[in-house]
Write a structure and sequence with these properties.
Two copies of one chain form a homodimer. By secondary structure, the first copy, chain A, is α/β, with parallel strands linked by helices. Chain A has helices at 11-19, 35-43, 54-57, 70-80, 98-103, 150-162, 173-195, 209-215, 222-230, 233-255, 259-276, 286-290, and strands spanning 2-7, 26-31, 49-51, 63-66, 89-92, 112-118, 139-144, 167-170.
């Protein structure tokens, strides 16, 4: 029986652990800092066992998922580098990969670090907001080291499939961070920037679905996103600049009341969106999922 | 029995007409241009009767909702100003109000024009995408003329309540357009601008819920939104400029990798979002609705 340990049972760690129910022959263990989290996890059947002592758990873990903020993950690997089981897998679930993979180099050679990023979340945090279907239909990104064992990568992939993820993409940490600056980090900054407008509180009663959708993630976990942004600053700066330019081009067309230009720009953007043809959350059937 | 006419049975007109089922003692009539739309509306029970002849329908309508694009609404009032029933209400459902209310001045004095904006929609258009619960929990904005009859405004409000709207806000067309530039038009331009990024098609497999949410409305009705934007250009330009500035301030903090500044800005934005406390779509119980 494999021992799979989740260090940190917040929104992501708690949901991941809970979703692992029934995965192969595994014992799911939570390693937490607060007694309240330990109690909650056991009472709600999120894990099989729980501990607050890394020294008791880490040396026996076949797979350890570090489910904390990026800086904590970096520090945790440094602090516990000699406590992981030889031959085991250490992984993480955070939203940046280059800095974490770089930091993982402190681990001994016989510990296989494989970065993960299950691309799901909500605007809430903490174990009380976790739920096992969080990752259903989500993308699951895996960033192995060049020297990662194929069987270890395969095990992670089977787990991702068990979570109900729509697809599993294997890539480099650099490519991951570059794209995520656009698809995730920019969206959070856009949501935040919309809420910075002076008119925000005057607009109650006037907001429709688009306003709710765009601003949904603005009520974010400030500590975590500060780390995610600052640890991916170059890529994020580049996409922020491009977004400013693209917004500005729209402003010029609107300011000039250039109807032809507005029409041409909207035609261009809306066709690109249609070509992307992104399904909304929950728009997959179980059958589609199984065929993916 | 009142005759309520919907001129245009697209996404909004079709949904509104369908949602009027059971409203007081009314006959719901669709006035359309295409036979296919007429057939669809009758086959799906969206209206009680349908016509393609304005001269047959308008003179007998107690309430006429113009459910077309803004320019068409303006032109329709000019063309049919002498065909509306004396003492009747003419209304519209489009997303800008100043230009439409201004254009409504061509109507005879004994026709009461009352602007409406039910704040709901989807990224689709056409009667085949209409559904009677579209307006459930939405805001319904009413912009009467100063001289509009109170009983007429009350009738419109009862209709909005029948649609299942969460609340009904009465305001001026100028205030409506100013706020809507922010809460609706800016969101559509943000969605479009995100899709303009050169990396769009490379990001498949890396997009999460926030990307889907922010870009959802980008596949918009180009003709309609070109009109909405160009007919509200001054207000929209102002908010676009403010959004650029707010985005830029985030970029400066990120470019400088100024962790304290990023943290302070995210604290500010996320607290504003939490203070807004916007419920997501579908987060109301029927009971809450009834109490509103």
């Amino acid at each position: 029986m494999k021992k799979v340990v989740f260090v940190g049972l917040g929104l992501i760690g708690g949901s991941f652990a809970a979703a692992m129910r029934g995965f192969e022959d595994c014992q799911i263990v939570g390693l937490v800092r607060r007694q309240a989290t330990a109690d909650y996890a056991l009472e709600h059947g999120i894990v099989d066992a729980v501990s607050m002592d890394p020294m008791e758990v880490l040396p026996e873990a076949d797979v350890t998922f570090l489910c904390m903020n990026p800086r904590q993950i970096v520090n945790y690997m440094e602090e516990h580098k000699d406590h992981f089981k030889p031959g085991s897998i250490v992984s993480d679930v955070c939203g940046i990969k280059t800095a974490v993979m770089e930091a993982s180099k402190v681990l001994p050679e016989d510990v296989d670090f494989i970065g993960c990023h299950p691309m799901a979340g909500t605007e809430f945090s903490g174990i009380e907001h976790s739920f096992p279907t969080l990752f259903r239909n989500a993308h699951f990104i895996v960033t192995p080291r060049p020297e990662s064992k194929e069987e270890n990568v395969e095990l992670i992939k089977r787990m991702a499939k068990h979570l109900g993820c729509r697809d599993i993409v294997v890539t480099t940490p650099e490519k991951h961070d570059d794209i995520i600056a656009y698809t995730s980090q920019l969206m959070h900054i856009v949501a935040a920037a919309v809420c910075d407008d002076a008119e925000l509180f005057q607009c109650r009663g006037f907001e429709g679905g688009s306003f709710r959708d765009v601003t949904r993630v603005a009520a974010l976990d400030v500590d975590m996103w500060t780390e995610l942004f600052s640890m991916n600053a170059p890529a994020l700066s580049r996409i922020l600049q491009r977004m400013e330019e693209n917004l500005h081009a729209y402003r010029v067309a609107v300011e000039n009341c250039d109807v032809e230009q507005i029409h041409a720009k909207l035609t261009y953007s809306s066709e690109r969106k249609r070509r992307m043809n992104l399904p909304g959350p929950g728009q997959f059937t179980l059958e589609e999922l199984e065929n993916n």
